[in-house]
């Protein structure tokens, strides 16, 4: 890996294209290097993972709405949509939209955390939709996905967005554009312009993850994928982009990040170097914000030690800056303590999550968020005894570049009514690559079968999994098999109509 310094340049200064971050990203995307076997295996795992969470969400209102919008844009050859038959295809940007929402709705797929946050699996819907529509092979698709992961992870390592309240899809738009360009085998110049366009149109605020969190949290990454496809299409037609997008005098760093005097360091593979960033990422065993994964595991471990939960006086979670200020009491969001809060808000309340995990000894993607569950009096009472505090050591470990000490958990101190305490800590989730039970292909398959139960027939599950097993060997027409078909009656209520399907 080579580290690249990125800073603002005045318009009067000449910054050659080859020195711009977007060009360097484009060079990485255009560098067709063979993929390592374990990388290909992991790409297959994440395709399965995305399908698993999409199966569990196909009947949920935001997904139904997004799918309804997509179905209003039929197209040939087009791309497939989760749940629909393979011959019902839509325009690729709308397939990316619908599938991106299905993947993101339950906050249950892969994650990477460093200087910023990300769900790199959000790259897959857009790259797959373009690959299906344009008739690419499984090998080309895999190459594109590897690039999407590489660029997003490298940007997340080097550039912090959240401290300036910029949503993390600002890293996803450029990575998806780079991945699409790599899959299509586009030249560096084209990818360069597409990456800049994608950055420009996918920069939004973090209010989507603050206060009364709505379904837009699920829509935001899908929007980035859709915009990436449109950006690549425009550039292929000869259009350009705001440039230099990151380094410009009125650009991203100067006015949306740390200002004209700031410098960032972004690592990128050198020419000929394998793209392995996907191996730094990790999926979720539990349907909740990633910083809650280890704490859910810790709650189910601590429950038997505590015994009678009604005897708890207080619970303090000592954890990282991010956990405290984003999903903890440091956020100062009263909604995070409200039993009537939305599922999306409860997903970002470690106080609620830890209380339920303590009581239930685990977590369920549906039951744990049910309104009757959130309003249970004893749960509310326990929930309001929980607070978080930032511990500098947990913050340091969160940002550590040493994979062996990087941590996303915390220490929990439970004080009982009699003054005694129960204390335990867990640095990483059990399913993390360095955890007690690292996820491997059988775990991804189990997750898919569990979440697809009652939604996708056993035969269709088998067909989908068998298709993934042959990923790099797939012929163009076989890429349509990388989405599943739902059983009749499992796609939820008919969506409300909107502009696209307006009837006169």
Automatic annotation (TrEMBL):
Alphabetized InterPro entries for the sequence: MmgE/PrpD_sf, MmgE/PrpD_sf_1, MmgE/PrpD_sf_2, MmgE_PrpD, MmgE_PrpD_C, MmgE_PrpD_N
Residue ranges occupied by any MmgE/PrpD C-terminal domain in the UniProt entry: 286-471
Keyword Signal part of the UniProt annotation: no
GO MF annotation, one: lyase activity
Origin: domain of life: Bacteria
Keyword terms: Lyase
Every MmgE/PrpD N-terminal domain range: 20-264
Family: Belongs to the PrpD family.
Self-association and partners: Monomer.
Annotated protein name in UniProt: 2-methylcitrate dehydratase
């Amino acid at each position: 890996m080579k580290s690249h310094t990125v800073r603002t340049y005045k318009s009067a200064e000449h910054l050659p294209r080859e020195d711009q971050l977007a060009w360097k990203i484009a060079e990485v995307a255009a560098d067709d290097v063979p993929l390592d076997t374990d990388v290909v295996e992991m790409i297959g795992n994440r395709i399965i993972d995305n399908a698993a969470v999409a199966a569990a969400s196909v009947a949920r209102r935001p997904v139904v709405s997004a799918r309804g919008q997509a179905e209003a844009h039929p197209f040939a050859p087009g791309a497939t949509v989760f749940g629909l038959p393979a011959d019902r295809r839509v325009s690729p940007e709308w397939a990316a939209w619908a599938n991106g929402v299905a993947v993101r709705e339950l906050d249950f797929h892969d994650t990477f955390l460093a200087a910023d946050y990300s769900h790199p699996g959000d790259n897959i819907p857009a790259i797959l939709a373009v690959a299906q529509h344009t008739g690419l092979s499984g090998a080309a698709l895999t190459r594109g996905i590897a690039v999407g992961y590489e660029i997003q992870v490298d940007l997340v390592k080097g550039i912090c967005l959240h401290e300036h309240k910029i949503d993390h899809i600002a890293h996803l738009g450029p990575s998806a554009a780079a991945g699409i360009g790599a899959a299509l085998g586009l030249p560096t110049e084209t990818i360069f312009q597409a990456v800049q366009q994608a950055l420009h149109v996918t920069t939004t605020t973090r209010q989507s993850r603050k206060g009364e969190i709505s379904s837009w949290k699920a829509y935001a990454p899908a929007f980035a994928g859709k915009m990436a496809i449109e950006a690549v299409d425009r550039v292929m037609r000869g259009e350009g982009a705001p440039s230099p997008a990151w380094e410009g005098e009125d650009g991203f760093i100067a006015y949306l990040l740390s200002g004209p005097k700031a410098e960032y360091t972004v690592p990128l593979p050198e020419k000929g170097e394998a793209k392995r960033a996907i191996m730094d990422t990790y999926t979720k065993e539990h349907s909740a914000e990633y910083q809650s994964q280890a704490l859910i595991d810790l709650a189910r471990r601590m429950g038997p030690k505590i015994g009678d939960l009604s005897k708890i006086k207080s619970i303090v979670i000592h954890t990282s800056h991010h956990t405290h200020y984003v999903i903890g009491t440091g956020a100062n969001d009263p909604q995070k303590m409200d039993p009537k809060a939305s599922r999306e808000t409860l997903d970002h309340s470690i106080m609620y999550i830890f209380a339920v995990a303590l009581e239930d000894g685990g977590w369920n993607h549906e039951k744990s968020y049910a309104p009757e569950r959130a309003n249970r009096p004893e749960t509310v009472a326990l929930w309001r005894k929980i607070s978080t505090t930032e511990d500098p050591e947990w913050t340091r470990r969160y940002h550590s570049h040493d994979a062996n000490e990087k941590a996303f958990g915390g220490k929990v101190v439970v004080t009982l009514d009699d003054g005694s305490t129960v204390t335990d800590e867990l640095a990483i989730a059990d399913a993390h690559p360095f955890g007690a039970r690292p996820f491997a292909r059988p775990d991804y398959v189990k997750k898919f079968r569990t979440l697809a139960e009652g939604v996708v027939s056993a035969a269709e599950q088998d067909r989908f999994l068998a298709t993934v097993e042959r990923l790099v060997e797939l012929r163009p027409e076989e890429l349509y098999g990388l989405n599943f078909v739902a059983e009749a009656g499992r796609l939820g209520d008919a969506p409300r109509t909107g502009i696209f399907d307006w009837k006169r």
